[in-house]
Design brief:
Number of helices: 12
Structural class: alpha/beta
Helix content: 40-55%
Oligomer: single chain
CATH architecture: Alpha-Beta Barrel
Number of strands: 10
CATH topology: TIM Barrel
Length: 239
């Protein structure tokens, strides 16, 4: 992630919006959204997703996930991937999914279509250069998107992945609060938003894995949870 994001400058200015409930969502959300049905072999699956990395805590997070044989999805910032290529490779080699979180973490609806394409394509190029695989999923910064953005996303053969559970881990910075919030809101098919750039977020993960595993949940990638994604569509969860 870029330096100002590593220092959380942007998080002090912008709050991650509740895209499903806010007036902004009503104005900017694209027309095409999908809520695929869970497969029979994944009836109690849930997807942990981590934004804004990779960072200095991502290695520890990977160790926690490995200890529970849990899979997750990492939506990465271009400059951060460029800075920590070995971590990107470890994420990939451990069987986790890597998605695109743009280059500069700008609100995409405020940009021209050409700028949106550059934000996404530049990060795709970095990630593909490290892993050999081009990402097919985008997490738009702040959950902000609109029809114009989705047209670019579709043209790139990608889908937008939002979330159904916002942990607000970037605001609370308290592992117990984050863990309890996830346990209280977990549902089969949920997509959970977290950030692997915060120590307290990563330290919440063992609590999350232990509690939800004991309830029979499986931790899977977004691709496993949602199945065949449609380019240009937006996804909040499965059902």
């Amino acid at each position: 992630m870029s330096n100002f994001l590593q220092n959380d400058f942007s998080r002090k200015i912008f709050e991650v919006p509740d895209i499903q409930n806010s007036k902004q969502a009503q104005k900017t959300a694209p027309l095409t959204s999908q809520s695929p049905l869970l497969d029979k072999d994944c009836s109690k699956c849930i997807a942990l997703t981590f934004d804004d990395g990779p960072g200095i805590y991502t290695d520890k997070l990977l160790s926690y996930l490995q200890s529970y044989k849990a899979k997750a999805t990492f939506f990465m910032i271009g400059p951060s991937a460029q800075r920590y290529p070995s971590i990107v490779k470890r994420v990939f080699d451990n069987g986790h999914q890597i998605g695109n979180h743009t280059w500069s973490h700008s609100s995409l609806p405020s940009l021209s279509s050409a700028q949106v394409q550059n934000e996404i394509a530049s990060t795709n190029n970095i990630l593909q250069g490290i892993t050999g695989v081009k990402p097919t999923t985008l997490r738009p910064p702040y959950g902000a998107t609109n029809a114009a953005v989705q047209r670019v996303v579709s043209n790139l053969g990608m889908s937008s992945i939002l979330w159904s559970v916002d942990t607000r881990d970037w605001a609370d910075r308290n592992s117990n609060i984050v863990c309890n919030r996830i346990i209280s809101n977990a549902r089969p098919g949920a997509i959970i938003l977290m950030h692997d750039i915060h120590r307290t977020s990563v330290e919440a993960v063992p609590c999350i894995l232990q509690n939800l595993s004991s309830q029979g949940y499986q931790f899977v990638t977004v691709d496993k949870l949602l199945g065949n994604l449609q380019p240009g569509s937006i996804y909040y969860s499965a059902k």
